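ok trying again, last paste got cut off:
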Amino acid sequence: MRVQYNPKHFLRQIPNAMLKEFFGRRGELTELKWDDLAEMDVDSVFDAWLALPETARAEVERSFRSVSDLSSAEGLQTLIEEGQFHRVDLTVCVNQLHGLHEKVFWVYLYHEKVFLSAGRLNRADHLNGRYWRRRTDLPAKKPDISHPTRELLARGISQYYQDHQGRGEHCKVEVYLRREKIHYFFAYPADYADTVIIYNDLGALERQLQKAAFEVVFAYNESSGTLDLFVQGDKNLRRDMEEIFARLVLKEELPEEGAGRQPYELNGLRSRDFDFPTDPEDSIQDVRVKALRLSIVGPGFGRITFESDARRKRGDIYDLMEKSLNHARMNAEAVNVTRAVLDVVFATGARPKTENFYISYPDTCSLKDTPEHLKIKEYLRRWGIATEN
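nice, full thing came through this time. structure:
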């Protein structure tokens, strides 16, 4: 579980030797008598940090926050996997260290490239799931990730937002490869200009013009032709972004919407007899349906949502559903499942680990690309819930 960032709490998690190394590389806090400081006696470090100029303080703050963001079991796993991709085995060293913050800070100090890549991917995993959409009908091929193509994609996105929304004057695209087949394209178009009130280095208030960046993320699987797109906007904007990506990166025309199968089929979950077979070696202890949203077939009927108690077993949601449908004199075939919330419980040592996620028909799923989530995605295909090849 990620801990809310607090500067002093953060400093207490990091050994003095690592803090000395960090500030020494920056040429800061060199006058501090590090060898005389007791571990976790952070007041002297904290006060010396606060005495730095505003710009330097802010840079240190950004670095500490980036480490804090990855200081979870999931974040550390992302670092280790990204290290494997870069042919760097982090496990031996991090296993000799204590605590998540210390382990992550060590990677930050000595494997910055791995740290930066993992930070990008970790952020993508935690973007608002509401705005992720999936298409499964693109050609399965290696994308063009060359520098000229990245510049073309940046210009295409920039021009689109300038023409349609009056923003996006600048745009930069960065590419990361994840698990050897999933290519992440992070685009950062410029947002509308705005003014903020800030304190300058002299402690005086002043008005500053800022032009922040917002994110558009493409995650393309070259093996399956699947494209996951994160973009905030309506379906027309989303399709336009898909078209820009297909034309510039894949050198293909985007297929007509609806030409392929929908990514997810949820109606099987209407039945309490829906089976979730698993293999013992995958250590999946249980699969539970926690909530279902049903759309009643026919014009103007609306939706019904059923949600089970967090402590009850899977069957209870079906007892509730059957009772309600029987009362309304409807059978299961009179409704379509348009949203499902599930728990997959992994047997991991003494304490099971539960992965909770949702799928909304036709193309939204909150699963990311962590190892457990990739395993669940494989099973969604096996269970017939995910329809892509």
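cool. The chain has a mean pLDDT of 85. The CA atoms of residues 352 and 361 lie 29 Å apart.
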